[in-house]
Every structure is written in structure tokens, then in C-alpha cells.
């Protein structure tokens, strides 16, 4: 329940504002993840039998999704 209007609200501006610095840092991590993902895909095309390259590509995808997950986590922890 929202403290101001009594409805269920998904907007949590305080959580969004507190999460912005961490989202920026995770955005930098996701940029590194994009580079790792591109290199990993190139290596997978060259040698598809390498299991370690596939694991690196999956990890890079998790790094790319990091900013969204950080913002969702912060906004869920702060009340409306």
C-alpha cells in the first residue's frame, strides 16, 4: 500500500534516486560485458567445442543485464 494515496504503487522515486549511482557503476560493468560477449561470440564461432567460452558468454550476458537488476532491487527495498 502506498503511504500517500493508499494504492499499490510501483513507483518508488527514493529507491530510484538512491540506486542511480550503483546503476551507473553497473552500466560500466555492462559495457565491459558487451565487449566480453562480442569477443566470446567470435571465439565460439571459431571453435564451438570450447565450453569455457560458452560460460564466459553467459557471464557476459549477466553483466549486461546488471543495471536493470540493480534498479529493480533498489526500488523494491525502499517503501513508496
Description of the molecule:
- This protein is mostly helical and 80 residues long.
- It has a domain at 26-77.
- It is built from 3 helices and no strands.
- α1 (13-46) runs antiparallel to α2 (51-64) and α1 (13-46) packs antiparallel against α3 (66-77).
- The chain starts with 12 loop residues before the first helix and ends with a helix.
- The mean pLDDT is 76.
Mean pLDDT: 76
Backbone CA Rg? 18 Å
Please, what is the oligomeric state? single chain
Low-pLDDT residue spans: none
| Strand residues, percent | under 5%
> Span between N and C termini?
8 Å
What is the tally of beta strands? 0
Structural class: mainly alpha
Q: Give the number of helices.
A: 3
Helix share, percent: over 70%
Instruction: Based on Cα principal axes, name the global outline.
Output: elongated
Q: What is the makeup of the main sheet?
A: none
Order of helices and strands: HHH
Short summary:
The chain is mainly α. It has helices at 13-46, 51-64, 66-77. It has a domain at 26-77.
SSE layout and pairing:
Layout: H1 13-46, H2 51-64, H3 66-77
Please describe the structure with a list of short key phrases separated by commas or semicolons:
80 residues; elongated; TAXIMIN_1/2; mainly alpha; membrane; 0% strand; 75% helix; transmembrane helix
